[in-house]
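[job 0417] fold request received: Carbohydrate binding family 9 domain-containing protein
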Amino acid sequence: MKLYSTVALLGFASLNAAANDNIAYHGQPVEIDGNFDDAIWQQIQPISIHHITRPSDQGTADVETTVRVYEDGEYLYLAFDARDPHPDQIRAAYRKRDNIWGDDIVGVKIDTYGNHQLAYQFFANPLGSQLDSVENAVTGNESSAWDGHWQAVGKITEQGYRVEMAIPFYIMNFPNSEGPKQWAMEFVRFWPRDVDRRISSVDISHANECWVCQMPLYTGFANARSTQKLILAPAIVAGRDESRDRYSQGDWQHNNQNEASLDVKWAISEDITLNATLNPDFSQVEADAAQLSVNESFSLFFEEKRPFFTENADYFSAPWDLVHTRNLAAPSVGAKATGRVGEHTFGLFMADDDTTSMIIPGNLGSAAATLDIKSKNLAARYSQRLNKQVTLGAMTTWRSADNYQNTVAATDANIRFTDQDNLTVAFARSDTDNPDYLPDYLWGEAAERASAANQAGNAWYLHYEHSFQNGSVFVSHEDIDEDFRADLGFMTKSDWQSSLVGGGYSFYPEQETWWSALNFYTDWDITHNQAGELIEKEWEGTVGLDSLWDSAFEFGFYVRDRAGLRFNDQSLAVGGNSDRFEEKGLIFFAEVSPLSNAYLSVFVEKGDGLDLYNNRLSDLLYVESEAKVAFTHNLQFHVRNEYTRLDYQSNRVLDASITDVRLTYQFSSHSALRLSMIFDDTEQGLAHFAAGRADGLYRQETGLASQLLYSYEVNPQTVFYLGYSESASKNDVLNSLRADRRTAFLKFSYAWFV
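[job 0417] inference complete; emitting structure tokens
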């Protein structure tokens, strides 16, 4: 590999130090084609991207990367020139938005307020496939659910690759002020080879966990205005849904759906945005990632994908997940206002839902319920940055339906004492009125907890972390009353007091060798209910090694003392109402990218695990594996499998797996044809179940869900979908797979820029 001289790089860096404090203004656009043919690019001083920030924060990159940047008052234009001594090793394929991790990538992080609280992220691979996200430096959350309207075109060359970007100012919030502004920015290149390196324009220190805080300020943008004030996105959805009883194999019953809807986005000012939706289509076009739900006591999390809710979702980010919009299953109308004015950030959304879904939390398990009643829903979040060290926040959620109401009021603070010391504290109170029939939709602990007509409770949280060069230590405590509920959020635990202490450290070689990092981590936690009865205590630790072929290996152990199921579900007591079990096990994780177009990973857990079907310890084996192959720039294959096995006294009690297979032909970054199949199979050894535990269970259950989808996405709101899906299943009664539902659907929406 060709090494660029240290003297030349230092000289180039010195030149940039004097030249790149300002972002140039030119009142003319460029053609975004990846060619750099426009004469204006030759007038812009390049910014060097050469600081290695991962795996360690030491050293200078062996590849040359530069970016030229200017703005014209409406757009920020960027031209990345990523040189590579071996262009044949460049990793890239045409991919769906936000799905480019693992490829070669270049991009920019932009903090439009310059206060190091929040950064927009715009990345693209060498073929122009895009990823955008929002990073919240206060909460530490990063959301790729946000999708903005911007352009990127990439081209692979004999010297490496080039990417041009045009980012319109109207998709970002920024101060509405006259004259020059200061925005914090970082320019980044991801270079995955034997080692996955992150290369930056900034000398990032790992001793400071806040990387956004280390982004330098750039002056300019005096004429920046959010000129695009209004986006109208009408949509038409047509579909035919057919279902039948899988046992009788009778006639298909059909339901035709033809709906029109309208989404509106209005940039009231440069820093305040209003979103509204009328008669929205909130259907899931994409199938959720498959998850194995057997032998689980708490509800599974599913990511939000619907555009109205993902737009500016980071404005509702808090230490707890108090807003989980997947709880809104069928909204009929919705409105959202978000903005940042000076050091003040706020978000407000309201939606009417034709149903009412919620999670009833507990300390040994949780359950979800969906009531066939219409509800009104509201969430509001406000935060203020008092100074560089202190940010305060407040939040409320409210849900109301017939004989039901849930209200949550919360406040939080983030205090950064030094660059290495950070404290987060939060407090919340909830008040809930339950309909008397709610327990009929639930079971076990959840039914008992929802039986009270009124519930009111508090919750508080504390987390302190001290970071240092290549490591950190932390301590946290969470206390949630037995009657606390956040029904609009995703909080699965109540009657819960948990303390955690832990830390980690990484070693890096002083010079390039066959390994790139040696990582150590350990933590210890203990949990009681509010009566002081022990729920769980656990000690775990891992050691990891990053090595050649962009590989990572991790070995670990855990020792866990936990409460089993309650003997009497009518009592919420744990002591004297459950047995105690000691779970011990080993874990192993490996991931490797042996070729530029292939990725493999496997996670294995083996040990003594609690069998929740029979309330006893069994031999547990859990395996999660994944493989991705890009046969060409267009044709991609992805398979993911989860497998769980429980054996008791050498007898098979449970054997369950779920496999998610997706074959995609990506015509371009905007157009694709995808076939997805999700196959699940559960076999239970009922003859080896404990007495009375096999009632109502099948020996074997199998299901197959398939979908064929064509998608064309110009931008997040100009889309065309045409698809067909079908589901089938079999069990002890059915000898073969029988289809019980099939759906054909079409959706078209178009974004009008007014």
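[job 0417] notes: Residues 408 and 430 are 4 Å apart (CA to CA). The mean pLDDT is 91.
[job 0417] exit 0
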